[in-house]
Design a protein that fits this description.
- The protein has about 350 residues and is of the alpha/beta class.
- It is built from ten helices and 15 strands.
- Helix content is about 35%, strand content about 15%.
- The strands form five sheets. The chain has a seven-stranded parallel sheet, sandwiched between helices.
- It starts with 5 loop residues before the first strand and ends in a 14-residue tail after the last helix.
- The structure holds nicotinamide-adenine-dinucleotide.
- The site of nicotinamide-adenine-dinucleotide has 30 residues, from helix 1, helix 4 and strand 7.
């Protein structure tokens, strides 16, 4: 996999200039959770493609500064049916990213998790159906695989949920499937594997491991690894998940709740991540080790053949290039100041 060259004609990267995405030009699209990390990248890409973008986000975890300049912004919860209905009106496609995303919070507040991730998802589906949306694309999660030892993870593996968060994401997939079977709405669920990239919030107490490592290294503190560091993940650069979302939305296939893994199919250990970052930054990235986190999965990697077959998905940016771009962003971002504390919105 090599990074694709930019298309000089219109300054879009080749994957975004793909003819497979042409049907999204001029479409009105709602991104729930569009002020967050992944949703904001989807919103920016849609705007660059020439779609008209609406973002609905309650800013519980996102930042208005993340929004693309031309987006219509509705500051509201997906649980507010009136606001949701008017945001959906006139849209051809909905990218449903809004969620309670913290696994620990889902354990301490399981009802809140169900409310946002299950009731909220049903409200998005109902509003989309009643407003005549063509397709909803849902942010599902590799958390569905839990500790299933069969690797790489395939969509036909039985779910193994270890948190209310994981259960709520699997429930969301089932809701998308049943809604498509009962109504005219077309739906697709994308199971994301460890996504990383610019705008991922390093200040969150639940910061994903890559942004947490960057924060430790840029602040001059030695990194801490929970466990022995030999655990592996399918670290997936943000452009890959954006590309998958757009391909799923644009596909002419009549989807009805199909579930697809979105990763790279490559596993990388935490020690490898640190070594690569240390090299790129020219700093000593030797970690200290802390006890493993309870419930952490040992290895995770996606089988991406279903997404390849159904939507023509291929990773467009590999891990090494993704780390390079993420470090370049972090060095220039006020989100990482010299003390590693958040300065302002990324
Ligand atoms: N980051 C990953 O590696 C990963 C992996 C698997 C799945 N996902 C899923 O992808 C989606 C996006 O995750 P992210 O990493 O960008 O997280 P994020 O926290 O950056 O984005 C989530 C956004 O949803 C908004 N939100 C939360 N509750 C809301 C509500 N009730 N109404 C409206 N907006 C609300 C937040 O303000 C935030 O902007 C989530 O559904 C998450 O479960 C992410």
């Amino acid at each position: 996999m090599t990074p694709q060259p930019d298309n000089p004609a219109d300054d879009l990267p080749a994957w975004l200039a793909s003819p497979a995405l042409a049907s999204l030009r001029g479409v009105r699209a709602l991104v729930t959770g569009g002020a967050g990390f992944i949703g904001s990248h989807i919103a920016h890409a849609l705007e660059r493609l020439g779609a008209s973008v609406v973002v609905l986000d309650d800013l519980s975890g996102g930042y208005e500064a993340n929004l693309p300049p031309g987006a219509d912004f509705v500051r509201s919860s997906i649980l507010d049916e009136g606001a949701l209905r008017s945001a959906v009106r006139g849209c051809g496609v909905v990218f449903h990213e809004a969620a309670l995303v913290s696994v620990p919070q889902s354990v301490s507040e399981p009802e809140r998790c169900s409310q946002v991730n299950m009731v909220g998802t049903q409200r998005v589906l109902t509003a989309a159906t009643e407003e005549g949306v063509r397709r909803v694309v849902f942010a599902a999660s590799a958390a569905a695989y839990g500790n299933n030892p069969s690797l790489p993870s395939r969509e036909d593996h039985v779910p193994d949920c270890w948190s209310p968060y994981a259960a709520s994401k699997v429930a969301g997939e089932l809701m998308l499937q049943s809604q498509a079977r009962c109504t005219s709405l077309s739906t697709v669920s994308l199971r994301y594997f460890n996504i990383f990239g610019p705008r991922q919030d390093p200040a969150s107490p639940y910061a994903a491991v890559i942004s947490a490592f960057i924060r430790m290294l840029l602040s001059g503190r030695g990194p801490t690894v929970m466990g022995d560091g030999l655990q592996t993940r399918d670290f997936t650069y943000i452009d890959n998940v954006v590309s998958a979302n757009l391909l799923a939305a644009a596909s002419p296939r009549p989807f009805a709740g199909e579930v697809m893994n979105i990763g790279t199919g490559v596993r990388t250990s935490l020690l490898d991540v640190l070594a690569r970052m240390g090299e790129a930054l020219g700093v000593d990235a030797t970690p200290t080790f802390a006890p493993p986190r309870a419930g952490d999965v040992r290895h995770s990697v996606a089988d991406i053949s279903r997404a390849r077959d159904l939507i023509g998905y291929e990773p467009v940016v590999d891990f090494a290039e993704g780390i390079r771009r993420t470090l370049a962003w972090a060095r220039a971002s006020p989100a990482f100041d010299s003390t590693g504390m958040r300065g302002s919105a990324a």
